[in-house]
Amino acid sequence: MRKLYILALVAFFGFSCTSGPENPADSVFINGIIYTVDESNPKVEAVAVKYGMIQAVGTTAEIQELVGENTEVIDLAGKTMTPGFIESHAHLMGIGYNKLELDLMYVKTYDELVEKVAEAVAKAKPGDWITGRGWHQDKWIQKPEKMVKGFQTNDALNEVSPDNPVFLRHASGHATFANSKALELAGISNLQGERPGEVEGGEIIVDELGNPTGVLTERASSLVARLVPEETPERAEEALTLALQELAEKGITSFHDAGSGQDVIDLVQKFKDEGKLTARMYIMLTGRQPELLEEWYKKGPMIDSEDHLLTVRSIKLNCDGALGPRGAWLLEDYADRPGHRGHETLPMSVVTEVSEKALPLGFQVCSHAIGDRANQEILDRYEAAFAKNPEIQDHRFRIEHAQHLHPDDIPRFGELGVIAAMQAIHLSSDRPWAIDRLGEKRIIDGAYVWQKLFQTGARIANGTDAPVEPVDAIPSFYASVTRKTLEGLPEGGYEGDQKMTREQALKSYTLDGAFAEFEEDFKGSIEVGKAADFTVFDQNIMEVAEDEILKTQVAMTVMGGKVVFKK
């Protein structure tokens, strides 16, 4: 009897020792090609996840040792995994609303735009506003016969919508196109005088007789925009739901929202409380609401150090326009519009005031600047603010876009520690016509100069500026490493010496994106102890032929260890 008891104990302990690991993983991802963006361990085969964090990385055999009875095993079957992609500059609600309005991003001609408006009018009630976004006259394959200052006129728009006001935002967000009904409601009629269409920080484009053409640039757009009916809470929730769905499908696990008000922050907080967030949110306070900034100065940054789902610790300032509508603020005249240098859309004194006030309170400042004059002015004001607060070394102030720089200002990014939040996809979309705006010398010396910035020690955080461009990271990754249009032109790319390596491009979409929001110790690379945020692709973006990159699709998106999208 005693012998049987001893045998039973031996059997029990033997079973216990072979029943599974002492600390089993919640899930494991095996048999993958995994780029970690960890210089000490750049490529592995498998990852183990526990409590939403990375428990271990290694070979498939090593990670399988952490598989327990309840561990979910996900076989990547040779697919490529990277850290979760971070969209470092886009507009969250704009992505959602773009799906609820007329999407003009892929319109190829003015006639096609008018046709889409006519279809919307046919479904609308009399007097309803027709709104949309995405048109870009320089991307049309055929331009209308009548153009004024590089833009179309609203004659055809008026014919299809005489009674419904129409308000269509340019792809850049820095110009709008309105029909006569909308202009009439805004009190904009014949404008004659010495400088007929100019308003502070913008322009009403008029023809030779002083008649408005329907195009409004920069701050002039607000003359009509303020009349568009406000969104309802229900529609806002629908837009956010659609935006989150789009992010998950495109492999985005973290998102930098480039300027929102308290309403958006509250809505995102509501979604967080309800467990609906499928991407981590880093929201910049819009500088267009000074009273909002004052409220946040009093209470200080909101840093989510618990679950890292919603942080508010930065301020977005809109300081000039875009290159397409000739609103970017330049040091010299536009090559294709002599006498015009763009617009200072925010007084530089405000940049000084906000920078000097935000810095000691722990807020990061992120300033939109596309033209070389705007970039120079902002760097000057950042530098002055840093000098007044020398004890604060880790400020991580940013310039959003930084598309066109004077050569003298390029080294200042690295010297001052200013992050360049750039969207590589803009090179593909804009470079074919940007040379008309700037001329060859300015393009070569300072436009989209990624390697020149890297050489100064600057960090580049990548993105798309959606809904200016689709939020899909693959085209932006392609643009980063090829400097070609999405049609694959030109051979060798535009200013090919400025291409990113694939390693630089991946880092700009992961670890440098995390750095740009003070989160590099929590995410951005696949290392033990960091968040289990992953993007899985159906082919190897780091090794496939250049012309195959655009065929890549997201196969799976994982945020905090949970699969939020699977194809």
Mean pLDDT equals 94
Distance between the termini: 59 Å
Spatial arrangement of strands, main beta sheet? 8-18-19-20-21-22-23-24
What Rg do the Cα atoms give? 26 Å
Helix-and-strand structural type = alpha/beta
Shape: globular
* CATH-level-4 superfamily name of the largest domain: Metal-dependent hydrolases
Q: How many structural units, i.e. domains?
A: 3
Q: How many helix segments?
A: 19
CATH architectural type of the largest domain: Alpha-Beta Barrel
Percentage of residues in helical conformation: 25-40%
Uncertain segments are 1-18
Task: Say what the CATH topology of the largest domain is.
Answer: TIM Barrel
Top-tier CATH class of the largest domain: Alpha Beta
Main beta sheet? 8 strands, parallel
The number of E-state strands comes to 27
Strand content: 15-25%
Keywords: Hydrolase, Signal
Domain Amidohydrolase: 72-565
Pfam families: Amidohydro_3 (PF07969)
Signal peptide: 1-19
Descriptive overview:
- An eight-stranded parallel sheet has the order 8-18-19-20-21-22-23-24. A seven-stranded mixed sheet has the order 9-10-13-14-17-16-15, sandwiched between helices. Strands 3-2-7-25-26-27 form a six-stranded mixed sheet, with no helix packed on it.
- Helix content is 33%, strand content 22%.
- Helix 14 runs antiparallel to helix 15 and helix 14 (425-438) crosses helix 17 (473-482).
- The protein folds into three domains: 27-78, Roll (Urease, subunit C, domain 1); 86-91 and 232-566, TIM Barrel, CATH 3.20.20.140; 130-226, Diaminopimelate Epimerase, Chain A, domain 1 (Roll).
- The chain has 19 helices and 27 strands.
- With 567 residues, the protein is an alpha/beta fold.
- It is globular, with a radius of gyration of 26 Å.
